[in-house]
Every structure is written in structure tokens, then in C-alpha cells.
Design brief:
The complex is a heterotrimer of chains A (295), B (325) and C (343).
Chain A: H1 4-8, H2 12-15, H3 19-28, H4 31-53, H5 85-121, H6 123-138, H7 141-152, H8 156-167, H9 169-182, H10 186-193, H11 198-234, H12 245-252, H13 261-294
Chain B: H1 2-31, H2 36-44, H3 49-58, H4 65-77, E1 83-84, E2 89-90, H5 91-126, H6 131-145, H7 148-162, H8 180-218, H9 221-228, H10 233-255, H11 257-270, H12 276-285, H13 289-317, H14 319-322
Antiparallel strand pairs in B: 1-2
Chain C: E1 17-30, E2 33-46, E3 50-54, H1 61-69, E4 77-86, E5 89-90, H2 96-102, E6 107-110, H3 114-117, H4 124-136, H5 140-153, H6 159-162, H7 172-184, E7 190-194, H8 202-219, E8 222-227, H9 230-236, E9 239-244, E10 247-253, H10 254-259, H11 264-271, H12 316-320, E11 326-327, E12 333-334
Parallel strand pairs in C: 3-8, 3-9, 6-7, 7-8
Antiparallel strand pairs in C: 1-2, 1-4, 4-5, 9-10, 10-12, 11-12
Helix pairs in contact in C: 4-5, 4-7, 5-7, 7-8
Classes of the chains: A mainly alpha (295), B mainly alpha (325), C alpha/beta (343).
């Protein structure tokens, strides 16, 4: 606000920049989103490079069980089997974030495909696709994933698939709504009458304009996929050979009253990560929205 | 009468969805490695190839798939979801024992979340920059960023170590004596922590949406009309604005039924609540496929019925959609 | 209440001043700072009288109406100075509770958008009955009975069954009739009509004006009409105030102002209407044909003539100093440095 007087004296020519730059500027004006972005980047870097600098195996017994944080040289202490919590946190973060990203990617892909086809073609295609979407909406997501993982094995790809297959409905609905709105706009009619193919209309005319709300939803999906994975691993439905944040909480659950830090610490890690993602998502939403109104 | 045909329409659509769930279950059972013969054989400690074939014939597993599907669907429609060899009783009766506990938890949590969330949202909307508004934002951020099972564990630690006023596990205290009232009170005390935990996620969603929708409604023309009538602030907010801003909140609540049931699985596990969630986990660990599939069916039914009710409530709230199909 | 106040013209109560606005200034806090959206406005309204406010959008007409109702946008708007004397009670100083007593009871308002001005989730009967219960202490049955009478009075057919209708079941014109029924339910002294027909079809517009005239004759309610439709003014009012950028540009009787506009802005407004007749014209002329636009809010309140940039008569004086309000013959008031060079 305080610099608005300076901006208003600028030449109007200087103000029209690449839309990406404008969005970025808008985003960086939102302080909580910027802080969240910094936190998120830190977490991701820690999860990527952390294990190289701290190669202790998260499944190896390194010390007496239940050593509290700080004692005996282990920054975050050890769990009920004497495994190093810090190592678990770093290695587990890698898995949690990777599954979150992959599952979100999968659900965004399915969601955009279903939503775009339904919103573009309408008619019976829309009818069928929306019925399928409604069907997936009534399946209790976590239970369905549990069933999938229980029946077909708790491998990382299966877990990712189980999360992705139940999470796409929101993206599909948003995409469809955007397609329904945009397909009626003049520039779409214009490209249609100038002989653009359906594929061109979908991918290069409508989709780019439908993206802003989808991007925001996709960002939030990563957060909810991380929560989802944590829930599954907490229930013991995770790959037993791979540490993840939820898995650490789940395996230490019987001992929470003796060593509450073993569940508190990975819980905080999940909480901070998902919080950072949702704040960044909110920031993106605010940064992308004014442009929506301008159109 | 329009309403009646409408209800018939919605109910038959719900039945179609349920049928689709049954078909999905059948597909899952057939895709899963191992079949009922393997389970029984495992139970008996091994079986010959002839015995296996006999068992398969008994259960109709030698029939063509479409006949099996037909058989499965008609069984389900008669309330037969198979037999749990792990729990040694029919799946339907097993679930019937556990369903009430889950329903109690799910419905109470939804109602608490709706009621408190709406109240917070309304209060926050009246002063968009006030302290309450900031608290609502904070609750909302916490509610959908914290893993629900972790919130539960934190409450469990807090209430068992520091302020032991609520029971942290189970649904009833078998040592309690006295009339029905003391049992109701006992269950209510056991419900406090699970309900708080489960409703926290949805309370966050509803309060935020209610705040946004309330702020939009408060800026609308008919609120200006209400002010021009000289109505009091509370009449304007709670009579004229609230009913209009409830629509989006109720719609969202309807969409959340599947998430509430999912959350209940985690919350039940944390607080050893004797519902479908704990049963599901036990069955998964025991590889008790019929029970797992049965739970999926029943929980989908809970969601479908929940959606149906939401639909009816929405029509009660908003006359504009009352007679729309 | 009226017994306790001394009328300014006690000998003739029909000519009594019902509402007297004195030097009213309303400020709005915007991104560019605090601006006077109503700048030193004064006028009187007689009991049962008629006055119109005219000007383009963004001139402060609606803000004047909201100020009278005590409904300025919160927290941005506030009355900075001046008085709103209603029956000699200063509404600018009145408490919120007192204003709520007056609103809908002594002073009512109908709005531009009948389509959105009624609450979609309550029946129209309830929305009429509500105001009666609030101000007249009627019970449910009495209020409902009175609501049916009121629907009848605004010529809605078979009112006894229509009270159970929801707004979406009514046409725009019918909804505006319901709004009028709500506004007149408690027989107010003043009805403020803010562009009451702008959103309606031309034929329906005429019906609504007919209804307002008819009800005014019956009830003796004074009507403040806010419009940019000169035809409506000619039809509905004796007095007119032309507003520009929050200020009074010209004030007089409708005959004076239309026959002999004393301000270039009024001149432009009237010239923009092809044939000014006391009936509603088919083409419903919008007053947008004066070159240029209303200055942005940030320029409101500056010590100069705010119309100067669009005015053919503008001189250096206009750009340096705000014109004073000059009273010509028969209380024909104008705020222009060059009023004498006109016509």
C-alpha cells in the first residue's frame, strides 16, 4: 500500500510486464506466503541433501532406546528400538514428500483429463465422466486406499497409486467448471470458427486459461497427499523397508506415554510442511486471482 | 407431490451408486491375490487339490465371472456379505455390531464441526479484521495442516499425562454402575476427545467457508434492505444472512462425508474406539478380505446416505432449488 | 412525537418542513485517503413533498440517500459535519438504536435492484410482516393480515396466496411492488426511492411511477427520488437538485431548472434528452452524452469547480476557486461562476 503512490507516478509502459513476473511480484508482496515458501524450500532441501550429510541408516539401532532429544549426542534422541530420530526425520521426509508429489501429480493428471473432457465435449461424455467422479466421491478415500494397499501390497508405487486414485475428484470438478466457463468466451468461439482442432482448443486455447485455479488446487493436493500417506503409514500400511514420517509415528505409537517426542517430532514435521504448502497455495491463489478478474 | 417424486429420484440414484460400489467390491475381490479357498485351506492347515476344487465349487468360484457377479450382487442385496473366518461370524452381523459406534462418532463430529464452525465463521465475518477473525484463520490453518491422528495423539498425551479428566480410550467403562443415564454420560465422556479430534479438520473448513460466504452475503442487496427495515444487528446476521450463507457450508459438509468417515478410521485407531475403523485395521492385519470389503460397502453407504440427507437439507434451506431435480 | 416539536411554519402544516439537511458533509475513507463524497449539502423537504436528486453515476446521489437512512458503508463512511434535522431531531447525531427505530418506520427506502433486494430464502409475506412486527408490535396473525392488505394496495393479484411465494417466483416489477409494500408498511413520513425503475422494462417503469404517485396521494408520504432519468423527474417531482461530484450544482423547482438551467452541467443533462416530456420516453435516455467523465473520488473536495474540465465556459477562475452557491430569483440556486453567461 505505502508504495502505491510511487507506482502511480510510473509511466504506464513500464507496468506491462510478462504475466509471470506480475504474478511473482504479487506473490512476494504476501509476507506469510514468502515465509512459508522459504520454510518449504528449506524442508525440501533438507530432505534431498540431508541423507547425504547424515548417512546414518534410519533402521539401524544406534543407541539405547528412548534416549531423549539432545542427550548422548543424538539431536532428536532415539526411538523405542534405539533408532536415530534425526536420521528417520531426514530420510522419512524424502519419502513423504516424494510420495506426496507423485500422488498429487497423478491425481492432477487424472483430474485434468476427466474435467477437461467433460467440460469440453459435454453431452453423454460429460454425463458418464461426472457419474464416475461422483462414484469416487462416495468411496471413503482412506478406507478405499487401505483396501487397495491391503489387497495388493504396501509397495511405494502401490501406495502412491492408492492415494492418487482417490484424490482426483476435486481437480476434475474445478477443471470442468473452468472449461464450462471458458468454452463460452469469445476468444474460444473465435479460434473455433477459424478452424482450430478440438485438441488445439483443449490444450492450447482453453487449458492455459483454466490453469490458475488448477495450479492452486494442485499445490494444496501435495499437502493433502502427504497427510494421506502419513495416515496410511500410521495405520501400518506402508512399505516396511522405507521410513516415512507417518511410519515413524505409527511404529512408536504404543510408547507415546513414555517417549512423546517420538511422535511429536515427526508430527511437527508433517504439520509444518503441510502448513507451508497451504500458505504457499493461498499466496498463489491471491497472486493469480486478480488476473482472473481482469480478464 | 413434486417433492415426493424428487425423493424417489434421488433415492434410486443413490441405490445405483451403491450398486456400483458392490460391483467394485466384486472386482477387488477377484483381483486380489488368493481366494476364499486359500483362506479356508490356510485355516485348516493345508488342503489337497481335490479339497480346494471342492471348496471352490461350493462357493461357486468355478462358475463364469458374470454368474459369480450376479450371485455376489444378489447375496449383498439379501444382506449377505460373506463370512469372516477370522472373527468366526457373518460379516454383516460383525459390522452391525460396530456400525453404531462409528455412526455416533461421525454424526456427532459432523454436527459439532458444522455448529461451531458456522458460529466462528459468522462471528469472524462480522469483524473481518478483528481478533476472532485471526483466530478463525489460525484454527483453519491448523485444522487442515495437522494430521488428524497426530492431533489425536497430542490430545491423548495431554489428557492422560497432565489433565486426566476425560477417558482416552474405548467407548464405555464396564465398571460404571447405575441407570441408563450414567451410561449415556459415560459414553459422552469417552466421546469428548475423539469428537474434538475428528471435528477439528472439518471445523476448520466450515468456519473458513462460512466466514467467506457470510462476508459475501453481508454485502448483498437484501441485507441492505434488512438494514433499511430497521432490524437489529442480530436479526440481520442470524435471520437474514445466516440462512443464505449456510448453503455453501452445507454443500461442503455433504462433500466431506467421505473424508469424515476416513478420518474416523484414524481417530478410532488412536482412541481405541470400537467402530468400523478399528475393525477395518484388525481385518487388514488379519488379511480378512470379506470383512474389509464389507466395511468398504457399509462406509460407502454411510457416505451415500449422508449425501442424500445433505441434499434434502439444502432444499429446506433454499427455496430456489427446492423443486429442482 | 410530532406534538412535541414546533413547526417552522406552524400556521400551515402541509407546508411544514419535515426534513432539513444543513451543510451535510459525508466523508469516505478510500485507498487515496479521506474524500468528501457529499460536500456541504443543504436542502429542505416539506411534509408530503417531492424532491429529486439528479446526476450521473458517482455524483453522490445514492450516498445522500444512505446518509439520510444512517446506512453509510461501514467503516469507510461517516458524517463529518452538518445536520440532518428530521422533525427537528438531528439524525446525524442519533444513536444506532434510535436510527433503527426510524428506519423502515419513519423513513423507508426502495432500491434500484428489485431482483436482488429481497431475501431469496424467505417468503414475501414474511418479509413484509417482519417490518410490521418490528415497528408496530403486531403479532404474527395481525402482521400477516396486514401484509395481505399491503400486497393488495400495491396491486399484486390474489395477495392472500401470493404471500407464500418466494421472491424468485415473482417478476422484477412485482418484486419492486413488494419492496414498495415493505417500505410503506409502517406509513413512513419519507420514502427514498433510489433509481426505483432503472432495472425494469419501460412499460413496468410507468406502472411503478403510477403506483408511487397513487400511494403518495393516499398516505401523504414525502418522496425523495434519486434518478438519472429526467423524464422521471419531470413526472414525479416539484423540486430538483442536480448533483455533481458530491456537490450541489443547481437547485430549484423542476419548471425553473428545466426551462432555464443555470448551470452548464444541468444544461448538458437536459440537452442530452432529445425531447423532454412529462411522460416516460421509450428510449430511456441515459445522461452520458456530456463529453468527459465524473472526476475520480480522489479529486472530490478540491477547491475548484470540479466540472471545469468538461465545461465550455471554464476559465482560470473555475480552476482556482470553488464556485459559491448563488441564489437567483425564487430560490433558484446554482453553483457556477458563469451562470450569467448562460442562456
Amino acid at each position: 500500500m505505502n508504495d502505491s503512490t510511487h507506482i502511480s507516478t510510473d509511466e504506464p509502459v513500464l507496468r506491462s510486464r510478462h504475466p509471470f513476473v506480475e504474478t511473482a511480484e504479487m506473490f512476494f508482496r504476501n509476507h506469510s506466503a514468502v515465509v512459508a515458501l522459504v520454510v518449504l524450500v528449506t524442508i525440501v532441501i533438507a530432505a534431498i541433501v540431508g541423507p547425504f550429510f547424515y548417512p546414518t541408516d534410519p533402521f539401524e539401532m544406534v543407541w539405547a532406546p528412548f534416549s531423549p532429544p539432545g542427550a548422548e549426542g543424538f539431536l532428536l534422541g532415539t526411538d523405542y528400538l534405539g533408532r536415530d530420530m534425526l536420521s528417520g526425520l531426514l530420510h522419512g521426509g524424502r519419502v513423504s514428500i516424494a510420495i506426496g508429489l507423485a500422488a498429487a501429480l497423478m491425481s492432477v493428471f487424472i483430474g485434468i483429463t476427466v474435467g477437461a473432457l467433460a467440460g469440453f465435449y459435454r453431452g453423454w461424455i460429460e454425463e458418464v465422466l461426472m457419474r464416475i467422479t461422483e462414484f469416487f466421491q462416495v468411496l471413503p478415500t482412506l478406507l478405499f486406499s487401505m483396501v487397495l494397499v491391503a489387497l495388493f501390497g504396501a509397495s511405494l508405487p502401490m501406495i502412491t497409486f492408492a492415494i492418487g486414485i482417490v484424490s482426483w475428484t476435486a481437480v476434475a470438478r474445478i477443471t470442468r467448471a473452468e472449461f464450462l466457463r471458458i468454452r463460452e468466451l469469445e476468444y474460444v468461439t473465435a479460434s473455433r470458427s477459424s478452424g482450430a482442432t478440438n485438441a488445439k482448443l483443449i490444450f492450447s486455447v482453453i487449458l492455459p486459461n483454466a490453469l490458475p485455479p488448477i495450479i492452486v488446487q494442485a499445490a494444496l493436493m501435495v499437502g493433502s497427499a502427504i497427510l494421506f500417506e502419513a495416515g496410511l503409514s500410521f495405520l501400518g500400511l506402508s512399505d516396511p523397508n522405507v521410513a516415512s514420517w507417518g511410519q515413524i509415528i505409527g511404529s512408536n505409537r504404543p510408547y507415546i506415554l513414555d517417549a512423546s517426542y517420538t511422535v511429536t517430532i515427526p508430527g511437527v514435521a508433517i504439520f509444518v510442511t503441510v502448513l507451508a504448502i497451504s500458505l504457499v497455495g493461498d499466496g498463489l491463489n491471491d497472486a493469480l486471482n486478480p488476473k482472473l478478474r481482469q480478464r | 407431490m413434486e417433492i415426493l417424486t424428487l425423493i424417489v429420484k434421488r433415492v434410486s440414484y443413490a441405490a445405483m451408486l451403491l450398486l456400483a460400489v458392490v460391483v467394485l467390491n466384486f472386482i477387488l475381490i477377484n483381483l486380489a491375490p488368493g481366494d476364499i479357498a486359500d483362506t479356508i485351506a490356510g485355516d485348516m492347515g493345508g488342503a489337497t487339490a481335490e479339497q480346494m476344487a471342492e471348496i471352490r465349487a461350493d462357493y461357486g468360484l468355478d462358475l463364469p465371472l458374470w454368474q459369480q457377479l450376479f450371485r455376489y450382487v444378489s447375496n449383498v442385496m439379501q444382506g449377505d456379505l460373506g463370512y469372516s473366518y477370522f472373527h468366526t461370524q457373518p460379516v454383516t452381523s460383525l459390522i452391525a455390531e460396530r456400525l453404531p459406534a462409528t455412526l455416533l462418532l461421525v454424526i456427532t463430529a459432523q454436527l459439532v464441526a458444522l455448529f461451531v464452525g458456522t458460529l466462528l465463521g459468522v462471528l469472524a465475518a462480522r469483524k473481518p479484521n478483528g481478533w476472532l477473525s485471526h483466530i478463525v484463520t489460525l484454527i483453519a490453518l491448523f485444522g487442515y495442516s495437522a494430521p488428524v491422528f497426530w492431533t489425536g495423539i497430542m490430545l491423548l498425551i495431554m489428557f492422560s499425562l497432565w489433565i486426566p479428566i476425560f477417558p482416552v480410550a474405548g467407548m464405555v467403562d464396564v465398571t460404571i454402575e447405575g441407570g441408563w443415564w450414567s451410561h449415556v454420560l459415560d459414553i459422552a465422556r469417552h466421546m469428548v476427545l475423539p469428537v474434538i479430534t475428528l471435528s477439528s479438520i472439518f471445523l476448520a473448513l466450515y468456519s473458513r467457508l462460512c466466514r467467506a460466504s457470510m462476508m459475501e452475503v453481508l454485502g448483498s442487496d437484501y441485507i441492505r434492505t434488512a438494514r433499511a427495515k430497521g432490524l437489529s444487528e442480530s436479526q440481520i446476521v442470524f435471520k437474514h444472512a445466516l440462512k443464505n450463507s449456510l448453503g455453501p457450508v452445507v454443500t461442503l459438509a455433504g462433500l466431506q462425508f467421505s473424508a469424515v468417515v476416513s478420518g474416523a478410521v484414524l481417530v478410532e485407531t488412536v482412541f481405541s474406539w470400537p467402530g468400523l475403523g478399528t475393525l477395518a485395521l484388525q481385518s487388514i492385519i488379519a488379511r480378512d478380505t470379506p470383512t474389509i470389503i464389507g466395511i468398504l460397502f457399509f462406509s460407502a453407504m454411510v457416505v451415500i446416505v449422508g449425501n442424500l440427507l445433505t441434499d434434502l437439507v439444502l432444499r429446506l434451506i433454499d427455496p430456489r432449488i427446492r423443486n429442482r431435480a | 412525537m410530532q406534538d412535541t416539536i414546533h413547526h417552522i411554519a406552524p400556521d400551515n402544516s402541509a407546508d411544514a418542513i419535515l426534513l432539513s439537511v444543513r451543510n451535510l458533509t459525508v466523508e469516505l475513507t478510500t485507498r487515496d485517503g479521506v474524500v468528501p463524497v457529499i460536500d456541504n449539502m443543504s436542502f429542505d423537504l416539506k411534509t408530503g413533498g417531492n424532491i429529486s436528486f439528479v446526476g450521473e453515476s458517482g455524483c453522490g446521489k445514492s450516498m445522500t440517500a444512505l446518509a439520510l437512512m444512517g446506512l453509510l458503508p461501514q467503516p469507510a463512511g461517516r458524517i463529518a459535519s452538518g445536520q440532518i434535522l428530521f422533525n427537528n431531531e438531528d439524525l446525524a447525531q442519533a444513536s444506532d438504536a434510535r436510527l433503527r427505530e426510524i428506519r423502515g418506520n419513519d423513513i423507508s427506502m426502495i432500491f434500484q435492484e428489485p431482483m436482488t433486494s429481497l431475501n431469496p430464502v424467505y417468503t414475501i409475506g414474511e418479509q413484509i410482516a417482519e417490518v410490521l412486527r418490528r415497528h408496530r408490535n403486531l403479532d404474527r396473525a395481525e402482521a400477516t393480515a396486514k401484509a395481505i392488505e399491503l400486497l393488495d394496495a400495491v396491486h399484486i393479484p390474489s395477495p392472500a396466496s401470493r404471500i407464500n411465494d418466494y421472491p424468485h417466483q415473482l417478476s422484477g416489477g412485482q418484486r419492486q411492488r413488494v419492496m414498495i409494500a415493505i417500505a410503506l408498511a409502517c406509513e413512513p413520513k419519507i420514502l427514498i426511492a433510489d433509481e426505483p425503475t432503472t432495472a425494469l422494462d419501460v412499460t413496468v417503469q410507468a406502472q411503478i411511477f403510477d403506483l408511487l404517485t397513487e400511494l403518495q396521494e393516499k398516505t401523504g408520504t414525502a418522496i425523495v427520488l434519486i434518478t438519472h432519468d429526467m423524464g422521471a423527474v419531470a413526472r414525479m417531482s416539484q423540486d430538483i437538485i442536480v448533483m455533481y461530484a458530491g456537490r450541489k450544482a443547481e437547485q430549484g423547482t423542476v419548471a425553473q431548472v428545466i426551462r432555464q438551467p443555470a448551470h452548464p452541467y444541468t444544461h448538458g443533462l437536459i440537452a442530452a434528452v432529445p425531447h423532454l416530456l412529462p411522460t416516460i420516453t421509450e428510449e430511456r435516455p441515459e445522461l452520458l452524452e456530456i463529453p468527459g467523465i465524473v472526476p475520480p473520488l480522489s479529486q472530490f473536495g478540491q477547491n475548484r469547480c470540479l466540472f471545469a474540465s468538461r465545461c465550455n465556459y471554464a476559465t482560470e477562475q473555475c480552476r482556482q476557486q470553488r464556485p459559491e452557491e448563488i441564489s437567483r430569483e425564487n430560490q433558484h440556486i446554482t453553483a457556477c461562476w458563469h451562470t450569467d453567461s448562460l442562456s
